[in-house]
Every structure is written in structure tokens, then in C-alpha cells.
Amino acid sequence: MFHHRFLLRAAALLLLVLPGLSPALSLRCVATPQQLTAAFNDAMASSDSPFLIQLRQGNYVFDSDTNQLPVLNLVRPGQSIEISGGWTGSNGSCTTSSPGAGSTRLVFDSPRAMRVEVTGAGGVQFSLHDLTLTSPNYKVSQSSACFEAGVTAGNAATLERLHLLQCRPALPSIAAPSGELRSYGADLLLRNIVVSGGESDYNGGMVINTRQGSHTRLSHLSITATRATALSFVSGLQLICDQTSRIDVSNSVIWGNDPRPEVVDFGLTGPNVHLLRVHVGRFSNENDIPAENIAPGSGDPGFVAAGDARLRADSLLVDTGAVDPAGGSGDFDVDGRARSSGLQVDVGAYESPDDVIFRTNFD
């Protein structure tokens, strides 16, 4: 059997020697915060594509002004950058990947968390998957406490199998500490993502701003236990969409966030937002829920515990997801468990293991 790393190197050499082909593949296998910082700088300086940054399993703690990730500015048209966690291998190599967010954690105790700006003239592809991002100690003071991204016209970004956990900024006025995403004429996909435990003055969860002809697809999100620590109307998921753009939200659950009755789980501003099988605790305006949304309901979704969005076997979200949602369901849930090939997928980022034997006509 060919070694995975050998195949990657062979592919890179092939791209170099064959005329008329794209620039060569580059690979960085990293195991420390310093190596990850260096890989970010290499990716911005390199014209190689695809540029792969693979993180070995473990904790990456950014805990000082000098030990923090640079802003990842991607400006070269046509470049592809992929950052992934869950890698293992002998002698510090990255030869085997395990899907799921839990094995690789980025802990931000420095002024900045992860920020990506995809501003190339077109064709830039950014991908981030199989990671936990967390900032539990209120140290981040620049931008969102866990993740921030901006994607401009003609480019695309995909985020998959992520856990944004306890995202808490040092400056509480940050409006979206768990995730702030801006898409201007771009294609944005978020799939199998959990947001939990985030806190800030205005929204402890996530804000997604979609404008200028963008298409944003959100599939299998679970957002719970976020909290607004001051006067606010939403903590959970806030969507902003202009008339030229479209947002599709499918097979997702936004429930059990800030308990105050005046704070809703899901805020929506603008037209052209389409919901399908989206389970919401409190919506900003019940009369504004898109008519095509077919949800299991708005009551207790059957989480295993408060703030833990994994599903009990008796949850009404089990086997009730829409087939082939916008953005797809992906091959794996946020924990790396295979999505059902039986009756239907589950709603949310987790696929329940308790009823697997009943999904293939088990009698």
C-alpha cells in the first residue's frame, strides 16, 4: 500500500514537471502554535495551490501578544487553502486523518483568535474543518473571540465539522464572539457546526452577513447555550441578507440560548432567507418565519442535557432531517460519526448513535 505522504509528494512533483499545469501542491504538517503561525505566513507568501495546512491532534494554546495567529489574508486569484485538524502519523507526520472536531483544539488566550480575509480577485477557495475553537478566559480583544472571516466577490469559503466553544471576548461589546462571517458576492457554506457557551453584550452566538449577490448555505447547525450579557434582542444565530443575495438554512436547531424572554434564538433581517427543517426556540418575529420551513416543531428538541446539543434517542429531531438539503448533509457529523444512509438524517450537527440499527430495516 502506498504511503499517503508519498502520494502527496508524488502529486506535487507531477504538477511541477508537467507543462501547462497549475502551481504545485504544498503541505504543512504542524504540531505546535508556532508551526501553525509559520504555516499561515507561508500560505500567504506562496503561490502554490492547493496549500494544505494539517494539524496533528492535540491542544494549540495561543497565550500572549507574540504567540497569536496572524490575520490570514488570501489575495492570489485561483489559490486553494485548506486547514484541517485530526491528523496523526508516526514520527510527527500527518498521514492519517480522523473526521470530527473534538481531537484538535485551538485555545485563544491571546488578543486575537482566527481571522481570515479572502479578498483575491476571484477563484480563491478557503476550507476549514475538523477543529474546536475556544476562548474561555476572556483574553481576545480584537474581532470575534473564536472565528471571523470576510469573503469577497468571486471567492468561496467552506467551514465544516467545527465546534465553537465558550467564545468569550475581553471586550464584551463584540457582537458575535463565536463567529462573524461576511460574504460579499461570494459563496459561503457552513455544515455540521456546533456553537455553544459563547457570551458577549449583544449576541453570544454567530452573525452571518450576506450581501452583493452572495449565496450562503447553512446545513446541520446546532446553536445552544449562548448568552447576551447586556441589553440585546438575539443570542444564537443572526442572519442579514440583502435583496440581491440568498441564504438557505436547512436541518438545523437553534434552541436553548439566552433564557430571558425578550432575547430570541434566531434573528432575521432582510428578504430571500429560506428555511427547511429548522427547529427554533424563539424567532425574532413568528410572523416572518418563511412559509416553506417544515420543522419538527419549536418545543424541547430532546438534547441529552442543557447546553449539550447531542440528541437523545427519543428526540423529535432524530430521522426528521430533509433529504439533500441546500449545501448537503456531508459524510460525517461534527463528531465524525457517519451520517445515516437509512431513513433520514437527523436535524442538527449531531447524528444520534442510539437508533442506528433501526435505520436499515432492522426488525
How many domains comprise the coordinates? 1
What fraction of residues sit in β-strands? 35-45%
Q: What multimeric state do the chains show?
A: single chain
Number of DSSP E strands = 23
Main sheet, how many strands, which sense, barrel? 12 strands, mixed
Continuous helix count? 2
Provide a descriptive summary of the structure in words.
The protein has 2 helices and 23 strands. It has one domain. The radius of gyration is 20 Å and the shape is globular. The chain is mainly beta and 363 residues long. The protein starts with a helix and ends in a 52-residue tail after the last strand. Strands 1, 2, 3, 5, 6, 7, 9, 11, 13, 16, 19 and 21 form a 12-stranded mixed beta sheet that branches. The longest helix is centred in the N-terminal third of the chain and has 14 residues, at 4-17.
Chain-wise SSE layout:
Elements (H helix, E strand, L loop, with lengths): L3 H14 L8 E5 L2 H13 L5 E6 L1 E5 L9 E3 L5 E9 L7 E2 L6 E5 L3 E7 L6 E16 L1 E10 L4 E14 L9 E6 L2 E10 L2 E2 L5 E6 L3 E10 L2 E2 L5 E8 L4 E9 L9 E6 L3 E8 L22 E3 L2 E4 L52
Parallel strand pairs: 1-2, 2-5, 3-7, 4-8, 5-9, 7-9, 8-10, 9-11, 10-12, 11-13, 12-15, 13-16, 14-17, 15-18, 16-19, 18-20, 19-21
Antiparallel strand pairs: 5-6, 22-23
